[in-house]
Amino acid sequence: MAFLNRFPGSEAKSLGVHWGRAVGRHVIKMRVDDGSEPGEVNYYLDRYQKRADALRWLPTGPFYGARPGPAFGSFDRGLYPGQGQIKPWTMTSGSQFRPANFYDPASPEFAETFDVIRLLGGMDSDIRTADESEIALFWEDGPWGVTPPGHFICIAMQILQDRDLSFIELARAFALLGMTQCDASICAWDCKYDYDIVRPESAIRVRAPDFKNPDPRVAQDSSWHSYIPTPEFPLYTSGHSTFGAAAAEMITLLYGRDDVAFSGQSPDQVLWPRLNGVTRHWTSLSHMAEENGMSRLYGGVHWEMDHTAAMKAGRAISRQAFRVTFPAKV
């Protein structure tokens, strides 16, 4: 109402309100049967084939949450397998940007990534720097607060507010941002349940002997815990990295350049009080996206390939959407 009250009463205003409500009702009707159902629990229900090998994902703990503050129970609706089955907004299908297969668990590449996360992402890591620890918490964006898409929409608002865009241009910009963040979730969750890959917490604490990797670094450590809470769903690819890459790419396309220096504070300072008064600075949008994605490695909840594959997919989502969805008139 506060927004509407900025405009004097007129026929144009009344027609605009009528049209806006009609569009809203149409979108709701269009998305009611969007392909995600049944998606009420974390059962695959023939939507995806459960892995049977050593890489298969199994739950790590009873809750995707942390204290202080409220936490949702395991598998909040948007984290179910049905998320990857939702009809996309801009992609041709939820599987359009699926990456290559994950590492063979007996390979040298897996041994390397296993060792990196074991050393870097543990609660008691002695190689993670203070800055990397801060990054892990800064971008955690768990289910208690803003979530990654909300965080990036806030960043887009911060950056685009000074671009002197018209009302229609702003509407287009945030429609594209919202749609590509939705598609980033569909893409990432399709990958997660299609590949069904184990999290570091389970791999390091329990599963290491099953990998049959000859490298002695792939060893079980039952005392290991990730630095930030391990989410209760498969990991390949990284949702954070997909969201961040899609957001950075779309803002770059809308803004016209990547090298935008800016800063920001964490929206989750209740959960992580040590972030009170902390401001992070970035030299570009791609710098911001890379830091966000790497936060999941510093936090011990992702392997490196999860991040690199997701960054590629996120950028591809936004490039395609910018080209074919609401193309700018020239």
CATH C-level category of the domain at 129-196 and 233-324 = Mainly Alpha
Helical content class: 40-55%
Please tell me the overall pLDDT.
Answer: 90
Q: List low-confidence stretches.
A: 62-72
Assembly status: single chain
- Please list the strands of the largest sheet in the order they lie side by side: 1-2
Distance between the termini: 34 Å
Count, helices? 9
Query: Which fold name corresponds to the CATH topology of the domain at 129-196 and 233-324?
Result: Vanadium-containing Chloroperoxidase, domain 2
* CATH architecture title of the domain at 129-196 and 233-324: Orthogonal Bundle
What percent strand? under 5%
Return the string of H and E elements. Answer: HHHHHHHEEHH
Q: Helices and strands: which structural class?
A: mainly alpha
Q: Rg, please?
A: 21 Å
Tell me about the largest β-sheet.
2 strands, antiparallel
3D architecture notes:
The chain has 330 residues and is mainly α. The protein has a domain at 129-196 and 233-324: Vanadium-containing Chloroperoxidase, domain 2, CATH 1.10.606. Helices cover 45% and strands 2% of the residues. It has a two-stranded antiparallel ribbon with strand order 1-2. Helix 5 (167-195) packs antiparallel against helix 7 and helix 7 packs parallel to helix 9. It starts with 10 loop residues before the first helix and ends in a 6-residue tail after the last helix.
